[in-house]
Every structure is written in C-alpha cells, then in structure tokens.
Amino acid sequence: MASKLQEYRRMSEKAQRQLTGSLERWQSFLATASRLYKYPYHEQVMIHAQRPDATACAEFDVWNNTMRRYVRRGSKGIALIDTSGDRERLRYVFDVSDTGTRPNSRSLNLWELREEHIPAVSSMLEKNYGIPAGESFAVQLEAVGSQLAREYWEDNRRDILGILEDSFLEEYDEFNVGVAFRNAAEVSISYSLMLRCGLEPENYFEHEDFMGVFDFNTPETAGALGTVVSGINQQVLREIGATIRNYERELIAERSITDELRMQALPIESFITVSAEEALPNALGLLLRLAVADGRLTDEELLSIQPVLDGRAWRPDLAVQVGDVFSFNASLWRCLQAHTTQSDWLPDCTPALWRKVEVIHEDEVRVWQTGVDYIVGDEVAYPDATGDVYVCQQAHTSLSGWEPPAVPALWTQKEQ
C-alpha cells in the first residue's frame, strides 16, 4: 500500500502535468497563486489541487497560537510536501475559511489595492524597475512583468534548455524556445499581477495570448514556467503590499487626533446607560472598553489613535475589565481577563491577562520581543527588522536573556 507521502507525490505530478493542458485550468492556478504568492510554486500546485479557492493559509499552530484563531472541527488540512529537511515529509495548512475568531484574535490584514493607492504604487514601480506609469496602471504592470520575464530567461536559459525532453518545445531551436518562454511567462505574470491588484485581466488578454503556455506540457517544463511566475509574483506583490501599508500609515499620521476620535466614537445610544458620575472622569476609557470588548475596534484602528491613548498608562492597583486598553513600554495592551493589576503582573509577562495591540501584516518581519508566546516555526528578526532571521525550535514564552543568538536550543539562524 502506498504511503500518504507517495500518494501526494503522485497528486503533485499529476497536477503539474494537467496545469498547462487547458486555459481554464492554467488561469485557475494563476488565480490561486496570486492570492497565495508567498508560497513557492510546488506548494501552490498542491494548494490549487486540493483547495483552489484558498485565500490565506497557515499551519494549525500559527492559527491557534500566533493569530489566536481556532480551526473548526472537521476541517481537512491541505497537504504540502516539505522538502526543507534531510528527507521529504508532509505538513498541513488550513485556509482562513477553516478558522473562527476568539475575543483576543489578531487581525489578519490582507492588502487590497484601491484607486487612491495607485499613484504611490505606480511611483514605486517606476523607481524600482524604471518603467513609467504610461497610459494606465495595467499597462505598467504588464511592462514590469515583461521586463522581469526577459531578465529571468537571460539568467536561466541554460537550465531551461536542459529540461525540454518530451515536451512540445523539444524541436525548437534556442531562439524560439526563448521566445516561447518569454511570451508564456510575460502573459502569465501580468495576468496574476492584475488579478491580485483587483483589475480584470480578461479585459487585456485574449485566448490567443496564452497559446504558448500549452507547449510546456511536461512536469519539468510546466515547473520551469510556474517557478518564474511564482518568483516574480512574490517579488512584485510584496513590494506593492509594502507600499500600500506605508501609504495607509502616512495617511493616518496626517489625520488630526480630533478627526480620529470622531471616526472611532460610538453612537450616543451605545452609552446612554452609563451614569454621568462614571462617564465623565474617564469617558474615553469607557468608550474604548465597550468598543474593544465587542469587537467594534480592531487593533489597526486602536494603533491609529495611539497618541491619544498614551496617557492611559498601566500601573499597579488598577481594577481593569475585559476590553480596557492601556499603554505600557511604548505599546498598547488590551485586557483579556478582569483583574486588579499588580507590580509583578506586567502586561508583557502575563499573556493570559494582556495581549499586545498589533497587526501582523502578511509580509511584515516580526522583531523578537520579550513576553511573547512563540511556537515552533515562528520566524523573527533580531535585534531589529534589518537583523538576522531566526526560526523557533521549541515553543516558549520569551524572556530577557533568552535572545535568539544566546539560546540555540530555542532558535536557529535562518540561512538567507
């Protein structure tokens, strides 16, 4: 009887053979890959074969411990073939649609390109790739994809020419193989970029534009095409996501505190039952408690008004309730359990009582900190976002003196 690993190997091989067999199947794969652009090609193939509609995937422990969401009972994991170790093994991920939220769940921030973002993103693309905006943003994306596909071919042509056996490309000379590869890569990359950016690529491409894809009819040639599409998608989409986040942060910084409070304020009927004696001394705290406790204020919204909340400093002997937000060590913390604060129950040392207000972006580097519950596989940078990246080897709560370089039993440095 075949092992599960062998079964999923066969699934992967079959999926790769079929990907370029029809336009519908190839475009379906490109749609999945554009949403899950952080995954390498061989894992995108497996996700598409099992859950083509997946939008954001992570392992069980990441959903449960890092994002503090629960995986619904009966959910079937998506099997991936992990080749990072000495031998292959299976690992499983779950889509966000398989999870549910808890009161202390972290926000999952998947970027979305809006019309107001386009000037900033277009400027970034011109700066990074030397391609001006031109007549439209879609045309600029297409030009970026074309340029990067040409560069990839020049850097990898020898490897690609060595895997053509049994494919429709086998009878082509080097020049025509290059033309076929560049054309198939350019249209596939452009289609993916447009799709992830919320454009409608079907308005820019016709069936004939994808005809060259069908020549990549072996797992090896399909893999070469899929690898270039996946790699360039990841590069460009990470840059677009970072630009959008920077734009949003700058926009928030430009707003006046008065405008922010007005945007976050609750309607009068939400607090008419609060007595004047209770509301007047700390109206802001009461409003926050109500809004945070029932989920009407997200972490991202709280961070946008952090300057206002810095005056609500944590200190011992405070009677705090679920939803209360206080400032401690230059960060905001939200209360998870009602209690009276004590000097030895600092927010960054008591994860059962407090959770740090933060937004984990899909591309953001996490910097190592004390008082954080880390699980196996978590990646952090140390000592800052530009430092070396370390991978967690044992689940633990970080403490001063347990910095990643100092405890190899807990952390190993990731090869760059």
Q: If you compute it from the alpha carbons, what radius of gyration comes out, rounded to the nearest whole angstrom?
A: 25 Å
Strand content: 5-15%
Q: Largest sheet, if any?
A: 3 strands, antiparallel
Report the count of strand segments.
17
How far apart the termini lie comes to 39 Å
**Helix and strand composition category:** alpha+beta
Question: What is the approximate shape?
Answer: globular
Mean pLDDT: 84
Spatial ordering of strands, largest sheet:
1-4-3
Which regions have little confidence, pLDDT < 50, spanning 5+ residues? 256-281
Query: What order do the helices and strands follow?
Result: HHHEHEEEEEHHHHHHHHHEEEEEEEEEEE
